[in-house]
Amino acid sequence: MMLRIGICDDEPMMREELCKMISWYMEEKGNTAYQISQFKSGESLLNSNEDYDLIFLDIQMEHPDGMETARRLRQRGNQGILVFVTILKENVFDAFEVEAYDYLIKPLKKERFVRTMDRAVRSLDQQADQSMIIQRGNTLQMISLSLIVYFEVIGRKIYIHQQNGEVTEYYDKMEKLEERVDERFFRCHRSYLVNLDYVQGCKAGQVLLPKEEKIPVSRLREKELARALLRHMKTSLGTVNK
Question: 198 is in which domain, residue-wise?
């Protein structure tokens, strides 16, 4: 897996320092391919339209500042790990609003940086175990299974319908797809594979999903869908109660 890392800071020296520290850390670990991109403003990061796995984001920048940049990233569906870099500790409390993973205080301390990277890389490894990687031309894209509402097959293409409304398409067969996903996905129709986490019911040959969306369920699979939902609910409750 290629780890995509973004650094956004309006101070060139800080960008270079972070770049060197990240490169040193990744080379020390030596088990993950990585790519670092630098941005001198929140606007340039937002305009890149890339979804980075890990982003180091300075809070105090010209508009949009780091907090506003983080909000916009989250609003458009970015689920990457955000690590804020700041001078003032009091800014840290605002980070919860945008689900920031951690924060680093300037000037950076090596020990603190290493602890943050250890946790972030470990978290990304865990996410990768619950994600699928698809190939589109020469590019690879990782999508978390928890964010996928359903898969749809049209012709030779698979269409991935995500929670944020984004639809990603790629070439594959339904049979191969079923082997790549876990037990939360149920094939309700020859052309649909639905995430049971999002199923709100079944009525008149339709699976009911959030935002009043519906997809078909085969008549012969309606009872099996009901049983699968019951099993899934019991499993989920059992996990919560542990």
Answer: 133-241
Q: Which of 69, 99, 129 is the last residue of a domain?
A: 129
For 181, counting Cβ atoms within 10 Å of its Cβ (0-12 exposed, 13-18 middle, 19+ buried), the class is: middle
- Measured CA to CA in angstroms, residue 214 lies from 31, 125, 168, 172 at distances of 43, 33, 18, 23
Mean pLDDT of 115-128: 83
Whichever domain contains 180, its CATH number is: 2.40.50.1020
What is the dihedral sign for C-alpha 119, 125, 131, 133? positive
122 with 186, same domain? Answer: no
CA dihedral (19, 20, 24, 27) positive or negative: positive
Angle of CA points 101, 104, 106, to nearest 5°? 160
Number of domains in the chain: 2
Question: What pLDDT, in 10s, does the model give residues 94-118?
Answer: 555 677 788 898 999 999 999 999 9
In order of 6, 84, 167, 227, the CA distances from 110 in angstroms are 19, 16, 40, 53
Residues 125 and 148 in one domain: no
- Cα distance between residue 46 and residue 59, in whole Å: 15
Question: Could you tell me if 71 and 176 lie in one domain?
Answer: no
Main-chain dihedrals φ then ψ at residue 51, nearest 5 degrees = -100, 100
Q: CA–CA separation, 242 vs 229, rounded Å?
A: 20
Closest CA to 80 of 98, 106, 93, 103: 98
Q: Is residue 152 classed as helix, strand or coil in its secondary structure?
A: strand
Neighbours of 141 (CB within 10 A): 14
